[in-house]
Amino acid sequence: MSFLELLEAEGRVAKKNAETLTRRFLLMYFGAAFLFCAAIAATAAAYMWLREYLCGPLSALAVSAILLAAGWYLFSRARVSDETSQTSELPVVASAEDKADGR
Predict the structure, then answer these.
(1) What is the pTM of this model?
(2) Dist CA 28 CA 78 (whole Å)
(3) CA 25/CA 37 separation, integer angstroms
(4) Using CA atoms, how far apart are residues 84 and 68, in angstroms rounded to an integer?
(5) Are 63 and 46 in contact (CB under 8 A)?
(6) What's CA 52's distance to the chain center, in Å?
(7) What is the number of alpha carbons within 13 Å of residue 17 lying toward its C-beta?
(8) pLDDT over threshold 80, residue 49
(9) What distance lies between CA 29 and its chain's CA centroid?
(10) How many angstroms separate the CA atoms of 18 and 3, rounded?
(11) Collapsed DSSP state (helix, strand, coil) of residue 53
């Protein structure tokens, strides 16, 4: 196999990977946008439903408290996973010199 054939093959693989990455990014972007719109619609529906039982400002306060609690929970879970990922590093293996020194 010549060098140019190798470059051509690598170029095809790079192009395929770029297309796959772009496709996945667009799917995730639009999926996140739809989830955001769904969250807004669910919040509006919860506000309208609570407005029938409570006054307007109190129902807005209840919906915002629910969203605040959910956001706080997700934020705290993200921080816990960051802390555990930092502590779960691979163990350091002692070299032969360290074993000979008794470390």
Answers:
(1) 0.50
(2) 20
(3) 18
(4) 24
(5) yes
(6) 36
(7) 6
(8) yes
(9) 12
(10) 22
(11) helix
